[in-house]
From TrEMBL:
SMART domains: EAL, GGDEF, PAS. Residues 288-420 form the GGDEF domain. InterPro entries: Biofilm_reg_signaling, EAL_dom, EAL_sf, GGDEF_dom, Nucleotide_cyclase, PAS, PAS-like_dom_sf, Rev_trsase/Diguanyl_cyclase. It catalyses: 3',3'-c-di-GMP + H2O = 5'-phosphoguanylyl(3'->5')guanosine + H(+). It comes from Paracidovorax konjaci. One of its GO terms (biological process) is cellular response to nitric oxide. GO terms for molecular function: cyclic-guanylate-specific phosphodiesterase activity. CDD domains: EAL, GGDEF, PAS. This is Diguanylate cyclase (GGDEF) domain-containing protein.
Length: 693
């Protein structure tokens, strides 16, 4: 061993230490002693390193620079991380320390100590790798990420967070936690609620949370937070922020489609039911009530049929706007479908509902304008009140619909409140309609024939076909009851077609029996408007062998005023066939002298309401006189209906009326009875009554 001797006690102490130690002569910088730990770290025998220059252990520029200093620099020592070059060429990371000591003999020494840092360095590298992966994961995440400690200080965040929250670059560089928090609070629509929620989350560090945030720029963000745990205890919180703007918009659209009418954008029945359910519960707890208005547009089908459904849809949109303008924010307008609307009125007071109904009617009376076309639309309104008229929405709509239906029966264009008796009336009406639809197949209906008499001769010249219905349970049903019901339900087309064929068949039988009499058949407006009406009529005439000249169709004035051009063409086609045309109940409708001249009209029928006042009522006499003489001037024959007394017949004869019919002659007779009348030698059904002297 070279250099100064080392006290045995020192050797013993150094040898027992776990740290690798070298004693270096401060003057020669040669190793004078090293312990076994040093030999193990260097991979050399201790004897091989004693008397070796310490420079041989240096393998970094820092080491070489240190050992090249003067004595003063060496005696100051050093402590830093370095590397040890083992004998096998492996670099070992070490924690290196050099300090000056004096030997017992007073010799200046330097103690070089090294601790193997291989595991620590490996752990550090693994930590750096994990941190790198974490950073890559954060930056590649689709969600914005924010990591905070328990005090709310920002530990980490990714670029997606900065984009979502529109953070400026200066804020990202400064890493100012207070500025970041203030910026995020300033971005949300409700900053106070945002801060209050964060305080609430901080009070429960172990809980996971989910919130929806609405930013001022319209972005919708889902914020989720989970606690960050260490050894089972929270040490921070990880927030994730997901942009739900598109999903939120799609969800709103789905809800809009689910709860609104596509055409008008109004709430639909589903949304109305939710609103009414809430109102019912409120009324149960607090008392009070509300009203339901059922609105149906009068004769809206005419708009669809004449101008098309696209035009009709646009009209419905205008109507929706009109109706909405009549309501308060607490009310709700709903479109059920077609031309039906329902209104929920927050107040259940009768006067409030009545006031709204009147306001709607007044608003609807104002002309509509669309594509330069002006038109008017009326509506009928039924009103039901909660709770007296029903406890559920279905019940209230049903009752309001019933009330609306009664308004239509009374003439439309008005409003009415539900009355309990209406349900009984409606049920009776439904039963009647059901029985009517079965009556034909069950043989409960028949055509009767009322004779038409020539005034001058008293001879039967024809008959009016009259539909009669006798029900086994209900008895004889008046035509004044079931004919309007058939017209309203559309069943009049079926009934009319059946009556027409029965009448043509019967008239053909009269002709073959030697009595070629004309049969007059009433035709409803709906039946006459059927596109194939003329074609079906021709088929019936040919099928039963009846000349067209022995058939007369009785039409109302209303038919002649609808779709004038189409009606004119249809009437011309019938006239060309030889079918007679009569205007029924002349003078009771919207009479127009123009069509008498323009159309091929053969007869005018004076309504019995004018005949009833004869002979004493001067007004009725004047009207009948005018009709008869106008007919004669236009070469149109005139028939008086409802003649019941000889005095009435005489008055008509004096006014030169051509024909009459009524109970004075005979009521409507079953086919067999009428056949017996005209074939039994009764050409004259009464003796003319002599004129009073």
């Amino acid at each position: 061993m070279s250099g100064a001797p080392i006290d045995i006690a020192w050797r013993s102490v150094f040898q027992g230490l776990p740290e690798a130690l070298w004693l270096v002569d401060a003057q020669s910088l040669n190793v004078v002693f090293c312990n076994q730990a040093a030999a193990d770290l260097a991979g050399r025998p201790a004897e091989a390193m004693e008397a070796m220059p310490v420079h041989a252990l240096a393998c970094t520029p820092e080491d070489l620079a240190f050992w090249s200093q003067d004595m003063a620099g060496l005696m100051a020592g050093i402590h830093s991380h370095s590397n040890m070059l083992r004998s096998d060429g492996q670099l070992v990371p070490v924690d290196r320390r050099v300090a000056a000591v004096a030997s017992p003999a007073g010799m200046p020494l330097l103690v070089l100590g090294m601790v193997d840092r291989s595991e620590q360095a490996s752990t550090q590298r693994e930590l750096e790798r994990l941190l790198s992966e974490l950073r890559a994961t954060l930056d590649s995440a689709a969600d914005g990420m924010l990591v905070c400690d328990m005090a709310g200080r920002v530990r980490a965040f990714n670029q997606r967070l900065a984009l979502l929250w529109n953070m400026p670059d200066t804020l990202l560089v400064e890493r100012n936690d207070a500025a970041v928090e203030a910026h995020m609070a300033g971005q949300v629509a409700d900053a106070d609620a945002y801060r209050a929620r964060l305080l609430g989350i901080a009070q429960f560090p172990d809980e996971e949370t989910t919130d929806i945030l609405q930013l001022r720029n319209g972005t919708v963000i889902e914020r989720r937070s989970v606690p960050q745990l260490s050894h089972g205890r929270p040490m921070g919180r990880v927030y994730s922020f997901r942009d739900l703007t598109l999903q939120h918009a799609a969800q709103k659209r789905i809800e809009q489609l689910a709860y609104s009418d596509v055409l008008t954008g109004l709430p639909n029945r589903l949304l109305l039911s939710r609103r009414v359910a809430s109102a019912i519960e409120s009324a149960r707890v607090q008392g009070g009530g509300f009203a339901i208005l059922f609105i149906d547009l009068d004769r809206f089908k005419i708009i669809n049929d004449s101008l098309g459904h696209l035009f009709g849809d646009r009209v419905l949109q205008l109507v929706a706007q009109r109706l909405q303008s009549c309501l308060r924010q607490t009310d709700m307008l709903c479109r059920l479908g077609g031309d039906e609307f329902v209104i929920y009125l927050h107040s259940g007071a009768t006067d409030v509902a009545e006031g709204v109904a009147r306001r709607i009617l007044e608003e609807m009376r104002q002309p509509f304008m669309l594509d330069g076309m002006g038109f008017s639309i009326q509506c009928s309104i039924g009103i039901a009140l909660h709770p007296q008229d029903g406890e559920t929405l279905d019940d209230l709509i049903k009752q309001a619909d019933t009330a609306m239906y009664r308004v239509k029966e009374r003439g439309r264009g008005s409003y009415g409140f539900y009355q309990p008796q209406m349900n009984a009336d409606l049920l009776s009406r439904m039963k009647l309609e059901h029985a009517m639809r079965q009556a034909l197949d069950r043989g409960h209906m028949a055509v009767h024939y009322q004779p038409q008499i020539a005034m001058a001769t008293g001879r039967v010249v024809g008959a009016e076909a009259l539909l009669r219905w006798t029900d086994p349970e209900l008895g004889a049903i008046s035509p004044g009851v079931f004919i309007p019901l058939a017209e309203e339900s559309g069943y009049i087309v079926t009934l009319g077609a059946w009556v027409l064929e029965q009448s043509i068949r019967e008239a053909a039988e009269w002709m073959r029996a030697g009595s070629p009499l004309m049969v007059a058949v009433n035709v409803s407006a709906l039946e006459f408007r059927q596109p194939d009406f003329v074609e079906r009529l021709v088929v019936l005439l040919q099928r039963h062998g009846l000349p067209a000249t022995l058939l007369e169709l009785e039409l109302t004035e209303t038919i002649l005023l609808q779709d004038a051009q189409e009606m004119e063409q249809r009437l011309a086609a019938l006239a060309e066939l030889g079918v007679g045309l009569a205007i029924d109940d002349f003078g009771t409708g919207y009479s127009s002298l123009a069509y008498l001249k323009k159309l091929a009209i053969h007869k005018l029928k004076i309504d019995q309401s004018f005949v009833r006042g004869l002979p004493g009522d001067e007004g009725d006499r004047a009207i009948i006189h005018a009709i008869v003489h106008m007919g004669r001037a236009l070469r149109i024959e005139v028939v008086a209906e409802g003649v019941e007394t000889p005095a009435q017949r005489l008055a008509l004869e004096q006014m030169e009326c051509h024909y009459f019919q009524g109970f004075l002659c005979a009521p409507g007779l079953p086919a067999e009875a009428f056949r017996a009348l005209i074939t039994g030698g009764q050409a004259y059904v009464w003796e003319p009554v002599p004129e009073p002297t």
